[in-house]
Protein backbone atom coordinates (compact mmCIF):
# COMPACT_ATOMS: atom_id res chain seq x y z
CA UNK A 1 0.00 0.00 0.00
CA UNK A 2 1.37 3.38 -0.88
CA UNK A 3 0.94 6.69 0.81
CA UNK A 4 -1.01 8.04 -2.15
CA UNK A 5 -3.63 5.34 -1.69
CA UNK A 6 -6.32 6.24 0.75
CA UNK A 7 -6.09 3.62 3.45
CA UNK A 8 -9.40 2.09 4.47
CA UNK A 9 -10.00 3.52 7.93
CA UNK A 10 -11.14 0.86 10.41
CA UNK A 11 -13.98 1.74 12.70
CA UNK A 12 -12.53 0.90 16.08
CA UNK A 13 -9.14 0.90 17.78
CA UNK A 14 -8.90 -2.88 17.88
CA UNK A 15 -9.22 -3.03 14.08
CA UNK A 16 -6.48 -0.40 13.71
CA UNK A 17 -4.15 -2.37 15.97
CA UNK A 18 -4.91 -5.59 14.07
CA UNK A 19 -4.10 -3.82 10.79
CA UNK A 20 -0.72 -2.74 12.18
CA UNK A 21 -0.05 -6.33 13.25
CA UNK A 22 -0.91 -7.55 9.74
CA UNK A 23 1.46 -5.01 8.18
CA UNK A 24 4.32 -5.96 10.49
CA UNK A 25 3.68 -9.66 9.93
CA UNK A 26 3.73 -9.08 6.18
CA UNK A 27 7.13 -7.34 6.13
CA UNK A 28 10.03 -9.09 4.49
CA UNK A 29 13.28 -9.85 6.19
CA UNK A 30 16.41 -8.24 4.75
CA UNK A 31 18.69 -10.68 2.94
CA UNK A 32 21.29 -12.22 5.19
CA UNK A 33 19.88 -10.42 8.22
CA UNK A 34 17.30 -10.91 10.92
CA UNK A 35 16.11 -7.32 10.47
CA UNK A 36 13.00 -6.48 8.55
CA UNK A 37 12.35 -3.68 6.17
CA UNK A 38 9.20 -1.71 6.77
CA UNK A 39 8.14 -0.25 3.44
CA UNK A 40 5.04 1.51 4.69
CA UNK A 41 6.26 3.19 7.83
CA UNK A 42 3.95 6.17 7.32
CA UNK A 43 0.86 3.96 7.11
CA UNK A 44 1.81 2.12 10.31
CA UNK A 45 2.45 5.40 12.12
CA UNK A 46 -0.84 6.83 10.84
CA UNK A 47 -2.75 3.79 12.07
CA UNK A 48 -1.03 3.93 15.44
CA UNK A 49 -1.75 7.68 15.81
CA UNK A 50 -5.39 7.16 14.94
CA UNK A 51 -5.58 4.26 17.45
CA UNK A 52 -4.04 6.50 20.13
CA UNK A 53 -6.61 9.20 19.39
CA UNK A 54 -9.48 6.77 19.56
CA UNK A 55 -8.30 5.06 22.72
CA UNK A 56 -9.42 7.82 25.13
CA UNK A 57 -12.90 7.91 23.54
CA UNK A 58 -13.25 4.16 23.63
CA UNK A 59 -11.84 3.99 27.13
CA UNK A 60 -14.31 6.66 28.23
CA UNK A 61 -17.16 4.72 26.56
CA UNK A 62 -15.98 1.51 28.15
CA UNK A 63 -15.85 3.16 31.58
CA UNK A 64 -19.31 4.63 31.02
CA UNK A 65 -20.64 1.20 29.99
CA UNK A 66 -19.01 -0.42 33.02
CA UNK A 67 -20.54 2.24 35.27
CA UNK A 68 -23.93 1.73 33.64
CA UNK A 69 -23.57 -2.02 34.04
CA UNK A 70 -22.64 -1.63 37.72
CA UNK A 71 -25.62 0.69 38.30
CA UNK A 72 -27.90 -1.75 36.49
CA UNK A 73 -26.56 -4.67 38.54
CA UNK A 74 -26.98 -2.68 41.76
CA UNK A 75 -30.55 -1.79 40.78
CA UNK A 76 -31.31 -5.43 39.97
CA UNK A 77 -29.74 -6.50 43.28
CA UNK A 78 -31.94 -3.99 45.16
CA UNK A 79 -35.01 -5.25 43.32
CA UNK A 80 -34.04 -8.85 44.06
CA UNK A 81 -33.51 -7.99 47.72
CA UNK A 82 -36.92 -6.27 47.80
CA UNK A 83 -38.56 -9.31 46.22
CA UNK A 84 -36.87 -11.66 48.68
CA UNK A 85 -37.89 -9.39 51.58
CA UNK A 86 -41.49 -9.23 50.35
CA UNK A 87 -41.54 -13.01 49.92
CA UNK A 88 -40.25 -13.50 53.47
CA UNK A 89 -42.89 -11.13 54.84
CA UNK A 90 -45.62 -12.91 52.91
CA UNK A 91 -44.36 -16.28 54.09
CA UNK A 92 -44.40 -15.03 57.70
CA UNK A 93 -47.96 -13.72 57.25
CA UNK A 94 -49.02 -17.02 55.77
CA UNK A 95 -47.48 -18.89 58.69
CA UNK A 96 -49.21 -16.54 61.11
CA UNK A 97 -52.52 -17.00 59.30
CA UNK A 98 -52.02 -20.74 59.38
CA UNK A 99 -51.32 -20.55 63.12
CA UNK A 100 -54.35 -18.29 63.67
CA UNK A 101 -56.55 -20.65 61.67
CA UNK A 102 -55.19 -23.64 63.58
CA UNK A 103 -55.82 -21.90 66.92
CA UNK A 104 -59.30 -20.83 65.79
CA UNK A 105 -60.13 -24.39 64.79
CA UNK A 106 -58.89 -25.73 68.13
CA UNK A 107 -60.90 -23.06 69.97
CA UNK A 108 -63.97 -23.84 67.88
CA UNK A 109 -63.61 -27.57 68.61
CA UNK A 110 -63.16 -26.90 72.33
CA UNK A 111 -66.18 -24.56 72.42
CA UNK A 112 -68.26 -27.06 70.47
CA UNK A 113 -67.35 -29.85 72.88
CA UNK A 114 -68.03 -27.57 75.87
CA UNK A 115 -71.41 -26.58 74.40
CA UNK A 116 -72.25 -30.23 73.67
CA UNK A 117 -71.35 -31.17 77.26
CA UNK A 118 -73.35 -28.25 78.67
CA UNK A 119 -76.36 -29.17 76.50
CA UNK A 120 -76.14 -32.80 77.69
CA UNK A 121 -75.88 -31.67 81.31
CA UNK A 122 -78.89 -29.33 80.94
CA UNK A 123 -80.93 -32.06 79.18
CA UNK A 124 -80.17 -34.53 81.98
CA UNK A 125 -81.02 -31.92 84.62
CA UNK A 126 -84.29 -31.12 82.82
CA UNK A 127 -85.12 -34.83 82.61
CA UNK A 128 -84.36 -35.26 86.32
CA UNK A 129 -86.49 -32.22 87.19
CA UNK A 130 -89.39 -33.49 85.08
CA UNK A 131 -89.03 -36.96 86.61
CA UNK A 132 -89.11 -35.48 90.15
CA UNK A 133 -92.18 -33.38 89.34
CA UNK A 134 -93.93 -36.32 87.68
CA UNK A 135 -93.07 -38.52 90.70
CA UNK A 136 -94.52 -35.89 93.06
CA UNK A 137 -97.59 -35.58 90.84
CA UNK A 138 -97.88 -39.39 90.82
CA UNK A 139 -97.86 -39.39 94.64
CA UNK A 140 -100.58 -36.71 94.72
CA UNK A 141 -102.62 -38.60 92.11
CA UNK A 142 -102.12 -41.84 94.00
CA UNK A 143 -103.42 -40.20 97.21
CA UNK A 144 -106.31 -38.69 95.29
CA UNK A 145 -107.17 -42.07 93.73
CA UNK A 146 -107.04 -43.70 97.16
CA UNK A 147 -109.26 -40.94 98.62
CA UNK A 148 -111.74 -41.29 95.76
CA UNK A 149 -111.72 -45.08 96.10
CA UNK A 150 -112.29 -44.81 99.86
CA UNK A 151 -115.14 -42.38 99.32
CA UNK A 152 -116.72 -44.67 96.76
CA UNK A 153 -116.43 -47.58 99.15
CA UNK A 154 -118.18 -45.62 101.85
CA UNK A 155 -120.93 -44.68 99.45
CA UNK A 156 -121.32 -48.21 98.27
CA UNK A 157 -121.59 -49.70 101.77
CA UNK A 158 -123.90 -47.25 103.55
CA UNK A 159 -126.92 -45.51 102.04
CA UNK A 160 -127.28 -41.86 102.84
CA UNK A 161 -129.20 -41.25 106.07
CA UNK A 162 -132.58 -39.64 105.99
CA UNK A 163 -132.74 -36.79 108.39
CA UNK A 164 -136.05 -36.32 110.09
CA UNK A 165 -137.36 -33.13 111.33
CA UNK A 166 -135.80 -31.08 108.72
CA UNK A 167 -137.75 -28.87 106.45
CA UNK A 168 -137.84 -30.69 103.14
CA UNK A 169 -139.67 -27.99 101.35
CA UNK A 170 -137.93 -26.01 98.69
CA UNK A 171 -139.66 -22.80 97.85
CA UNK A 172 -142.84 -24.09 99.57
CA UNK A 173 -142.96 -27.40 97.68
CA UNK A 174 -142.62 -30.71 99.47
CA UNK A 175 -139.73 -32.87 98.25
CA UNK A 176 -138.19 -36.26 99.12
CA UNK A 177 -134.63 -34.89 99.01
CA UNK A 178 -133.15 -34.98 102.53
CA UNK A 179 -130.68 -32.14 101.62
CA UNK A 180 -133.29 -29.97 99.94
CA UNK A 181 -133.51 -27.40 102.65
CA UNK A 182 -129.76 -27.05 103.13
CA UNK A 183 -127.47 -24.97 101.08
CA UNK A 184 -125.37 -27.57 99.32
CA UNK A 185 -121.85 -27.01 98.12
CA UNK A 186 -118.71 -29.08 97.79
CA UNK A 187 -115.74 -28.04 99.85
CA UNK A 188 -112.72 -30.12 99.12
CA UNK A 189 -110.81 -28.77 102.06
CA UNK A 190 -113.36 -29.98 104.61
CA UNK A 191 -113.07 -33.65 105.66
Task: Give a quick set of tags describing it.
two-stranded antiparallel sheet; 191 residues; 2 helices; mainly alpha
Compact description:
This protein has helices at 13-25, 41-157; strands spanning 28-29, 36-37, 169-170, 173-174. The chain is mostly helical.
How many distinct beta strands? 4
Largest sheet: 2 strands, antiparallel
**How would you classify the quaternary structure?**
single chain
Q: Fraction of residues in helices?
A: 55-70%
Shape: rod-shaped
What does this 3D model show about the protein?
The chain is mainly α and 191 residues long. It contains 2 helices and 4 strands. It has helices at residues 13-25, 41-157, and strands at residues 28-29, 36-37, 169-170, 173-174. The strands form 2 sheets. Strands 1-2 form a two-stranded antiparallel sheet. Helix 1 crosses helix 2 (41-157). The model has no long low-confidence stretch (mean pLDDT 78).
Helix-strand layout with pairing:
Blueprint: H1 13-25, E1 28-29, E2 36-37, H2 41-157, E3 169-170, E4 173-174
Antiparallel strand pairs: 1-2, 3-4
Helix pairs in contact: 1-2
Amino acid sequence: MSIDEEPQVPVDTESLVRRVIEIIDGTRALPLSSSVKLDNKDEVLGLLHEACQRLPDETRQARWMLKERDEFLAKMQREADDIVHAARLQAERMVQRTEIVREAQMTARRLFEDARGEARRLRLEAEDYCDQKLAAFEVVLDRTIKTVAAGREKLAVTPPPIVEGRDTRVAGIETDDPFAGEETFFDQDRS
